[in-house]
Amino acid sequence: MAKQIQKFLLISIDCWRYDALGRTNPSFNTPKFDLLTQDFSLADRFFVTAPATRPSHVSLFTGLYPFEHGLYGQTYLKMFGGVQNLFQLFEAEGYHAFGRSERSEVFRFLDFESYITARDSQAKSQHLGSLEEIIESLITPADQPKFSFLHFWYTHGGYGLSGVRNAPNLGAMVKAGQTEEALRYYYAAVTHIQEFLLVEILKLLDLDQWAIFIFGDHGEGFNTEVMAHGDVLHQNVAHVPLLANIPGVEQISFPADQPVSMIDLFPTITSLAGIETGYDGYGQNWLDSSEQTSQQNRWVLTELDSLYGVGFLKASNLEMPHYRVTSRMTVDGEELPRDPNGRRMWSVTDGDVFYREDELSGHSVLRSIADGKDLNCLDPQLYRNHYEDLLIGSNYQHLSMQDSTEEEEQILEGRLRDLGYIE
Ligand SMILES: [Zn+2]
Fold first, then answer.
1. What is the whole-number distance in angstroms between the Cα of residue 230 and the centre of ligand 1?
2. pLDDT exceeds 50 at position 61
3. How far apart are the CA of 49 and the centre of ligand 1, in A?
4. Ion ligand 1: residues, CB < 5 A
5. For residue 310, how far is its CA from the centre of ligand 1 (angstroms)?
6. 308 shares its domain with 269
7. How many A from CA of 199 to the centre of ligand 1?
8. 173 CA → ligand 1 middle, Å
9. Most buried in the list 30, 262, 293, 321, measured by CB within 10 Å?
10. Distance 376 CA to ligand 1 centre (A)
């Protein structure tokens, strides 16, 4: 077991897909980044809890699934009350806890919002900003314990193509079967983040001191089922890379035949810092092998809820004063507009197969993670049982009880009824 660590850096690359990395894709051209991270452990079965930025990061910072922390989907405004998060925990332990984001307003109304500021406070366009502020806050004062988070948005939809003359329509290219050609533009954006920005940061950090985790908050579809990420649960979106450096740990021994999840970072990181949290969620501490053996046959969950539709991430909503947000889905006491095409889906995976189900239509798909091919699903109940186990076994049900609307309770009830749990 490593000794108590004083320096933490969490790096989230928005929309970072599993194949946008030199170690998983030999044609990916990032020699400097690959050198700097060559001794990092790679989790090759790492899954996010949601296909959207807000709920996924809430899972990162709380160790809870969306149905436990309350951000069921991107447009839900607030978390359930009474959920602890990494920023507050680390700050209480005397760490300088801070985050820098190229899209800091995306974290608006979440409990840890005040910790995350712009990547460059002077820059009008964040992707044109300087890295010097970030680097300064990471390396000085040298003896200050740090819990830090960086979030890169340049890799999000558009991939830096906006304003580029003759920019192609990537969605149309994918539909026309030119996926590899379309992916070049996305890969270029990820390459830029890794090979310029991250290289300049990572080369300054002492790997014997810093615990560093680099991961995607979700992937990106680039296929005919889902082009971006938030519309449908898909293995290209749920499965992302995670690289980790932990001082004193040569390689993390990720279980070869089990999945790991975004919710694992919370217990792993707090344990490395020696912080007692009373955490009782499904996340596993990657350095505690007894936990892994106790959770053999692990299935991890990804949830999508787009009932409240699109358009939330516009300035008029994000600049609204806090008092106007009167509940998780109401503003000034009025429910947010519903999206007529909104959906609720869930998926479970063991790292080999991916099963997803649409809660409203009941339509389901089983497929192989390795090659993305659909499989014949003889018994959907098998997978529903894994989902049911997670819902029923959660130690955080009291959070939803205190803070759910009547309608949400009806939805939950309906879900349990569909699963055959109640009559
Ligand atoms: Zn995102």
1. 9
2. yes
3. 12
4. 14, 53, 217
5. 14
6. no
7. 21
8. 22
9. 262
10. 31
Range of the domain at 318: 300-418
The whole-angstrom separation of Cα 256 and Cα 265 is: 18
Q: Is the pLDDT of residue 423 over 60?
A: no
For residue 333, the CA-to-ligand 1 centroid distance in Å is 28
Tell me the residue type at 208. Answer: D
Domain shared by 345 and 233, yes or no: no
Q: What is the pLDDT of residues 234-285, one digit of tens each?
A: 999 999 999 999 999 999 999 888 999 999 999 999 999 999 999 999 999 9
Query: CA angle, corner 273, sides to 57 and 300, nearest 5?
Result: 40
Nearest in space to 344 (alpha carbons), one of 391, 381, 378, 398: 391
Cα(9) to ligand 1 centroid in Å equals 18
- Residue 13 CA to ligand 1 center (angstroms) comes to 8
pLDDT band for position 204 (cuts 50, 70, 90): very high
Count of CB atoms situated within 10 Å of the CB of 331: 14
195 plus 85 within the same structural domain: yes
Amino acid at 112: F
CA of 174 relative to ligand 1 center, distance in Å: 21
Helix (H, G, I), strand (E, B) or coil at 294: helix
Q: Is the pTM of this model over 0.85?
A: yes
CATH number for 174: 3.40.720.10
Pairing between β-strand 344-349 and β-strand 353-358 as defined by DSSP bridges: antiparallel
Same structural domain for residues 240 and 152? yes
Ligand 1 centroid to 237 CA: how many Å? 10
pLDDT band at 1 (very low <50, low <70, confident <90, very high): very low
Distance CA 54, CA 239 (A): 17
How do 96-101 and 260-261 pair as beta strands? unpaired
Q: How many CB atoms lie within 10 A of CB 126?
A: 17
Residue 307 domain-assigned?
A: yes
CA of 232 to the centre of ligand 1 (A): 14
Q: Which two tokens stand for residue 127?
A: 């992707």
Looking at the 3D structure of the chain, how many domains does it have? Answer: 2
Shared domain for 270 and 130, answered yes or no, is yes
Same domain, 172 and 307: no
Q: Answer with the one of 257, 287, 317 that is the final residue of a domain.
A: 287
- The C-alpha atoms of residue 47 and residue 216 are separated, in whole angstroms, by 9
C-beta separation of 33 from 318 below 8 A: no
Reading the block at residue 244, the tokens are 């980790």
* Inter-CA distances, 50 with 54, 163, 323, Å: 9, 30, 27
Calpha distance 203→7 (Å, rounded): 15
104 and 238 co-located in one domain:
yes
